[in-house]
Every structure is written in C-alpha cells, then in structure tokens.
C-alpha cells in the first residue's frame, strides 16, 4: 500500500533532460564564484592583515587589508556575478515540452 502511494506521487523526472545539464553547469559556476570570493577575501585579509597594527596602511580610514578584502572584494564579486549571469547562464523553462508545469 505504501509503495503504490509513493509511485502515484512520484514526479516524472527524466535524468536525460537537458535542463539538468544546464542546472549542473550553472551550479558549478556558482561554486567557482564562491571559491574565488573566499580566496580573494582570505588572501587580502590574512595576507595584508597579518602585520603588526603599527605597520598598517589605511585607505578611506579603513585598514588596507579590510578595504581590499571586504570593500573591493564585494565590488569585484558583483561584477563577476553579473558577467557570469549575463554570459553563461541560460533561460530555462520550468514547463516540459507538452506545456505541463511540474
């Protein structure tokens, strides 16, 4: 009885649907962007921020490590995300070919 209920409510998912390939590629792009963001932040925060405070340089009143890791890093990531979405992401319909929504 339980098995028939699950079979009736199981959605028809075709693993060969080209939308899955697009979704996987776009997820991979998202993971790459996260890794770039972390590497940027970590590199500037711990690369420049590991000096004694007396040796810090300041930009707009902020320590250089903070300015480059958080302020510039945010702006760089915004630009990269815009480039990724505009250049690599595709519009994918949520409806199958017969017009039924899932």
Please explain how this structure is put together.
The chain is mainly α. It has three helices and two strands, in the order ααββα. A hairpin with a 2-residue loop joins strand 1 and strand 2 (62-63).
Keyphrases for this structure?
3 helices; two-stranded antiparallel ribbon; 63% helix; 102 residues; mainly alpha; elongated; membrane
Please give the structural blueprint:
Blueprint: H1 2-9, H2 18-48, E1 58-59, E2 62-63, H3 64-88
Helix pairs in contact: 2-3
How many individual β-strands? 2
Low-pLDDT ranges: none
* 3D shape: elongated
What characterizes the major β-sheet? 2 strands, antiparallel
Q: Order of strands in the sheet with the most strands?
A: 1-2
CA distance, first residue to last residue: 25 Å
The radius of gyration computed from the alpha-carbon positions, rounded to a whole number of angstroms, is 23 Å
- The average pLDDT value, as a whole number, equals 86
Number of helices: 3
Q: What portion of residues belong to β-strands?
A: under 5%
Give, in order, the helices and strands.
HHEEH
**Structure class:** mainly alpha
Helix content: 55-70%
Could you provide a short overview of the structure?
Pfam families: DUF997. This protein is mainly alpha-helical and 102 residues long.
């Amino acid at each position: 009885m339980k098995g028939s209920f699950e079979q009736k409510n199981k959605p028809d998912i075709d693993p060969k649907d080209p939308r899955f390939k697009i979704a996987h590629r776009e997820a991979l792009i998202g993971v790459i962007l996260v890794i770039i963001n972390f590497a940027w932040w970590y590199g500037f925060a711990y690369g420049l921020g590991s000096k004694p405070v007396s040796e810090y340089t300041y930009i707009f009143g902020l320590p250089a490590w903070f300015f480059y890791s958080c302020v510039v890093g945010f702006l760089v990531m915004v630009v990269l995300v815009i480039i990724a979405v505009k250049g690599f992401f595709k519009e994918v319909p949520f409806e199958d070919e017969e017009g039924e929504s899932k």
